[in-house]
UniProtKB/TrEMBL annotation:
Keywords: Metal-binding, NAD, Oxidoreductase, Zinc. PANTHER family: ALCOHOL DEHYDROGENASE, ALCOHOL DEHYDROGENASE CLASS-3. GO terms for molecular function: S-(hydroxymethyl)glutathione dehydrogenase [NAD(P)+] activity; zinc ion binding. It holds the Pfam family ADH_N. GO terms for biological process: formaldehyde catabolic process. GO terms for cellular component: cytosol. It comes from Formimonas warabiya. This is Enoyl reductase (ER) domain-containing protein. Its cofactor is Zn(2+). Belongs to the zinc-containing alcohol dehydrogenase family. Residues 11-361 form the Enoyl reductase (ER) domain. It comes from the Bacteria.
Length: 367
């Protein structure tokens, strides 16, 4: 057994608390990892505000990089000393979805919130012996974790780990939403609402397909960043009507729209912003209790409009993460510029406050 310092959530709408937690030794198919850097992603906040159906205590953090410290006897994918990007889905490889190449939809996802292993056991515990939920089988808001080897994607040790943590989630999620889920065509027009890490990578995906018009929108002033990543137009959603502005720019609406927030109001705007034959993609994760979006279904039918959800960019992380890294090495996609501020673990609540104030694209925790 081993202990680590971790940021623990103990109740709804309560801040992270730094605690010492206890880890079991890795089992035969598991890996012990020294976490080097963790991303601060909005998805983890869903555990705080009730958007996710979780129990407490829970160790969040699903986007990270690290160095393998120890492996179980049956582990074959990595060995001690390997540098890894962590995947938040421990794709089993044998369920119907994995067999179809859709590892991001693996049936293990039923334990995505609690991180329980296939036998129902947990690996991390509070000092008083209580089991602690381990979000996405990871819990990268800890300087050490034990996870399934299927969460480990080995990377070139020459890559600086502090530059690549966001490739574990937000880069492939945004880029893949354009290239794989929407299958956006060259010369297209598009709207991107919500300019955090996911939204900026949707813009990067649109650049990859040579979109002619990329309209970025946010309630915070992120115009400079949006244009640096490739946006051709910007809408201040705190003052302007997003749909009206889209029609002023395009005349007829856009080919594709991307909701990168996960709110019904924004999803409805994205559908209204597309033209005949247009495609709205819901990228942001909505609250688990959200069951309605305002839609004109008459218009959707006669205009042949489409709506799609997307998870992890519509592909297995074991396909997308290596692809994104090769593009980064070739200078075809930005990683470094996504990270706008670093924090210590003790500053995690400050990091989230900065996120909601619109001060960052992506914040990270460096251990």
């Amino acid at each position: 057994m081993r202990t680590s310092r971790a940021a623990i959530l103990k109740g709804l709408n309560q801040p992270f608390e730094i605690e010492e937690v206890v880890w079991d030794d890795p089992r035969d198919d598991e890996v012990a990892v020294k976490v080097v850097v963790s991303g601060l992603c909005h998805s983890d906040w869903h555990c705080i505000n009730g958007d996710y159906d979780v129990q407490f205590p829970i160790l969040a953090g699903h986007e990270g990089v690290g160095i393998v410290e120890a492996v179980g006897k049956n582990v074959t994918k990595v060995q001690p000393g390997d540098h890894i990007v962590m995947s938040w889905m421990a794709s089993c490889g044998v369920c119907p979805w994995c067999v179809k190449g859709q590892g991001q939809l693996c049936d293990r996802g039923e334990h995505l919130m609690d991180g329980a292993r296939d036998d129902g056991s947990f690996r991390v515990h509070m000092k008083d012996g209580r089991d602690c939920w381990q979000l996405s089988f990871l819990g990268t808001f800890s300087d050490y974790i034990v996870t399934n080897e299927k969460c480990c994607i080995k990377v070139d040790p020459s890559l600086p780990l502090d530059k690549i943590p966001v490739v574990g989630c937000r880069i492939p999620t945004g880029w893949g939403a354009v290239v794989h889920t929407a299958q956006a065509h060259h010369g297209c027009t598009a709207l991107v609402v919500g300019l955090g890490g996911v939204g900026m990578n949707v813009i990067q995906g649109l650049k990859s397909v040579n979109a002619n018009v990329i309209i970025a929108a946010d309630i915070h002033d992120k115009e400079k960043w949006a244009r640096e990543f490739g946006a051709t137009h910007y809408i201040d959603a705190s003052k302007q009507d997003v749909v009206e502005e889209v029609y002023k720019i395009t005349g007829i609406g856009v080919d594709y729209s991307f909701d990168c927030i996960g709110l019904g109001e924004v999803q409805a705007q994205c559908v209204k912003a597309i033209h005949k034959g247009g495609h709205a993609v819901f990228v942001g994760v909505a609250p688990i209790t959200q069951t309605h979006v305002e839609l004109n279904t008459w218009k959707m039918t006669l205009y042949q409009q489409r709506i799609s959800g997307t998870c992890y960019g519509g592909r297995s992380p074991f396909e997308l993460v290596p692809q994104m890294i090769e593009m980064y090495k070739a200078g075809q996609i930005k990683f470094d510029e996504l990270i706008t501020k670093e924090y210590t673990l003790d500053q995690i609540n400050e990091g989230y406050a900065d996120m909601f104030a619109g001060k960052n694209i992506c914040g990270i925790i460096r251990y």
